[in-house]
Write a structure and sequence with these properties.
The protein is an alpha/beta fold. The protein contains 14 helices and ten strands. The chain has an eight-stranded mixed sheet, sandwiched between helices.
């Protein structure tokens, strides 16, 4: 049977195959985290590949508090979520399915292994979870063309779209995936950053199909600074899907030498235990970024930009298609050109949607709210304690710049 060629990365438009890092929070490191890291810095011995007992026990406790039973024998740690996805993809074999758009680090791992990745459309409210009917169509088409889809990567709390998929929509996709024999990788990096946790219901695919879903959490989402790479994975408990897969993943991590640095492992274990100083800081950071994201979203929509309301994370995803004519007058006709245009005018990174698997011709960008908090550590730290961070000069100035740039484009199209 004829095999479909992998989707080619756009050429001559920058390094589009490897996207930007996870959106950071822009805030000073919590002193207690620094103390945990410093306390282990003098240790000469390395933690084992897959994580030491303290880190794995803390990870299990973290998941149990979220209704996901876990044991150390079903858990692994690595220096960042990409290493875990790479190991899982290698262990499972076959082709990979991802939503369009998706986190920038999902597809490069498959490409590095020579595997094919197929993008599946999503619905309006579920940015990180494929539409179930589109998923079935894609699976059947890939198989008809000689492919072998085995892994579906999805995210209920999504990067880049900042949406949170409703449980009923997730259930339909999970049911379709399991019916086709796919293994699920649920990226739950942003699950602890819900902007309105009391009004937003987040359900993990691992709660729906315990024997078919692996959960990965990069601690840069809500627990550690992005510069301290650590991530944990929870594997299914069943003997067929869990134990064998866990062992194969550890084999790959060992071959890669992918172990969490000892000081970072100590900080990760502290963070996963969720002591009060950390949970208080996380809650304050989530409130801050939610306020700023909502203000940025209002500014964008007011200028005619299309954007789903951000529900999680430290980012928002903008579609500037309604402003195409005005952007065309500035020589902007695709996502890379839009990225370059906005980065200069906003004075902040504005990675184009092509870095997240979106079409190059679509005028979409992801903006990080951390870049709107101020230019210095002092300004960003002040945001945490201000009664209304939107009234701070640093935040006001950044939002004014965003509003001005977008309003100018809106006015130019008239």
């Amino acid at each position: 049977m004829r095999r479909t060629a992998p989707e080619a990365a756009p050429e001559d438009h920058g390094p589009v195959r490897y996207g930007p890092p996870l959106p950071g929070d822009g805030l000073p490191v919590l002193p207690e985290l620094s103390a945990a890291l410093s306390g282990a810095a003098a240790r000469a011995e390395a933690d084992p590949v897959g994580g030491g007992p303290a880190l794995l026990d803390a990870a299990c406790g973290y998941w149990r508090r979220r209704g996901l039973p876990a044991r150390p024998a079903e858990t692994a740690a690595a220096p960042g979520a990409p290493a875990l996805l790479l190991a899982l993809t290698a262990a499972l074999g076959g082709d990979v399915l991802v939503p369009r758009p998706c986190a920038a680090w999902w597809v490069p791992d498959a490409r590095l292994l020579g595997r094919r990745a197929f993008h599946v459309p999503t619905t309006a409210e579920s940015g990180g979870v494929p539409d179930p009917y589109a998923l079935l169509e894609t699976v059947h088409r890939v198989r008809a063309e000689g492919g072998d889809p085995r892994l579906l990567v999805l995210s209920v709390a999504d990067d880049p779209t900042a949406t949170v998929t409703p449980p009923e929509a997730l259930h339909e996709t999970v049911e379709a995936a399991v019916g086709e024999g796919l293994h699920l990788l649920s990226d739950e990096t942003w699950r602890d950053t819900l902007h309105d946790p009391h009004e937003t219901v987040l359900v993990s695919p691992a709660e729906m199909v315990p024997g078919r879903a692996t959960v990965v959490t990069d601690l840069a989402g809500g627990l550690l600074p992005p510069g301290w790479p650590a991530a944990v994975a929870r594997f299914p408990a069943s003997a067929t899907a869990g134990d064998g897969l866990h062992a194969r993943v550890l084999d790959v991590l060992t071959a890669l030498g992918a172990r969490v640095a000892t000081p970072v492992a100590a900080a990760a274990a502290y963070a996963l235990a969720e002591p009060e100083p950390l949970t208080d800081r996380r809650a304050a950071a989530v409130r801050l970024h939610a306020r700023v994201a909502a203000a940025a979203h209002t500014a964008a929509v007011g200028a005619g930009v299309l954007s789903r309301p951000p529900r999680a994370g430290r980012h928002l995803y903008l579609d500037l298609e309604p402003l195409r004519a005005a952007l065309g007058a500035h020589g902007v006709g695709d996502a890379q050109e839009l990225e370059d245009f906005l980065a200069v005018r906003l004075g902040m990174p504005a990675p184009g949607g092509h870095r997240f698997g979106d079409h190059l011709g679509a005028l979409r960008v992801r903006l990080s709210t951390a870049a709107l908090l101020g230019a210095t550590d002092e300004e960003r730290a002040e945001c945490l304690t201000a009664p209304d961070p939107l009234e701070l000069p640093s935040v006001q100035g950044a939002l004014t710049t965003l509003r001005s740039v977008l309003d100018d484009l809106r006015d130019a199209r008239r």
